[in-house]
Amino acid sequence: MNGTIPLSQENLQRLPDGVSRPEYDRKNICAGIVHVGVGGFHRSHEAYYTDELLRTGDFSQWGICGIGLRDGDRKIASVLEQQDYLYTLIIRHPDGRIENRVIGSIVDFMMGCDDPQAVIDRMASSETKIVSLTITEGGYNVDSTTGEFDFSNPDAQHDLAHPMQPKLVFGFITAALRKRRDQGLTAFTVQSCDNIQHNGNLTRKMVLEFARRQDPELADWIDANVKFPNAMVDRITPVTTQADIEYLKNEFGLDDAWPVTSEPFCQWVIEDDFVNGRPPWENVGAQFVPDVTPYEKMKLRLLNAGHSVLGILGSIHGHQTIDGSVSDELFAGYLRQFMDAEATPVLDAVEGIDLDKYKDTLLERFRNPNIKDSLSRICLESSSKLPVFLIPTIKDNLERGGSIRYATLVIAAWCLYCDRGVDRHGNELDIVDGMKASLNEAAAKTSDDPLSFLKIQSVFGDLASNERFVKTYTEMVGRLYQDSDVAQQMRNVMS
Ligand code: CS2
Q1: How far is the CA of 238 from the centre of ligand 1 (A)?
Q2: Whose CA is nearest to atom 9 of ligand 1?
Q3: Any ligand 1 atom below 6 A from CB of 92
Q4: Is the ipTM reported for this complex over the cut 0.85?
Q5: Using CB atoms within 10 A of its CB, is residue 109 exposed (0-12), middle (13-18) or buried (19+)?
Q6: Residue 462 main-chain phi, psi, to 5 deg
Q7: Which of 61, 116, 280, 373 is in the most buried spot, having the most CB atoms within 10 Å?
Q8: What is the pTM of this model?
Q9: How many alpha carbons fall within 13 Å on the CB side of residue 9?
């Protein structure tokens, strides 16, 4: 196609059929939501739901102002700014159908590290009703050994010493809430959109612990006035590739520097606990429920744990993507058996959800050949993910005498992964983990001390002192270190 159309508000009318666009009046939208962490997932999920809502009527107080807190957010800041905060969501169906949709719900973006005061003021403004977060599991600054706020983090120390120039999201939220209290404004709701069980309760705990250290009276005010709804969020969103950018150019002549790709499936289950109003997201498919616990547990322990099972075992075996792994019958079978024999027996029933169907749907979603979800994305920050996704299933099964073999092999394989850092063909694995060095160091001692890896308490808790677990793990790690053919070990577990 000759000449491309740069994505911008002005050019929306020039977009060809085949790309749906926001027709609502974006100029008059107020950002009732301030969102920290505008990654792919926020853009395919909360921003998508909100765009869908804005398309249905006058909800103009519910736009989104994105916030980046770190240097790494500069790229998204500049791309969005150049594109009038517009971007394309490419929804890829398993049968090859593709929906292309320009999302218009983000209407502003600010960088906290450049102008912290401006971000605090924005959060404190009466327009802001919700501060939502996608800061990843690691962003909650939890000391994983104690479960408390980690004050040893230098950024936390900095924020305590410089309350008006914070670096961590907790410093920003606290400063903004102080300003609201002093001005007699209603608080905002803090809404976590991260994949953590009881994400709202955790956010509340971390905000309160930080605020209490800084200003106990403010902490009491927050405790009494702020709401932190729990929620389960779900939409598989692979990392954007150059091919996604080229696709929009070639098919539609559309020049979008950072589109997002996702699967069609989308789910958001939220506890209806907001202090200053909320968008009626239920009009566009979100579910509001009194207690989200069973939904989040089901998702974390089946979908996310399933991803980790495929991610760790598949990486060592030499698979590249989730769909590539599940098209391998051995991996698909192993995953299903892990879900049936270990994850499901320790789940609570979810009203209105048939777990067998949920698992069938998961496998279908994983099989979507048009979502090339890389195993390197799945394995990113495993040290924060596995304690949330997989280890609780092992612990529950240890307590009730259930099977632990499927999940334990994943832990043993993770040790090998951290130690060797290569797949079975000798190709180097792209390991990105804040704990990479300590994981590697502990894993490398396995031949001398088979439990060395397990002794990382912040990840495994007290698993190293559970006799049954230690026995199974030691056997598996021993076998894997003798023969790193993970497929053979998977067959052993299944036999
Ligand atoms: C994945 C999730 O990060 C992971 O390991 O399991 O990002 C997953 O794709 C999303 O939670 C889907 O909602």
Answers
A1: 9
A2: 236
A3: no
A4: yes
A5: buried
A6: -100, 25
A7: 373
A8: 0.96
A9: 14
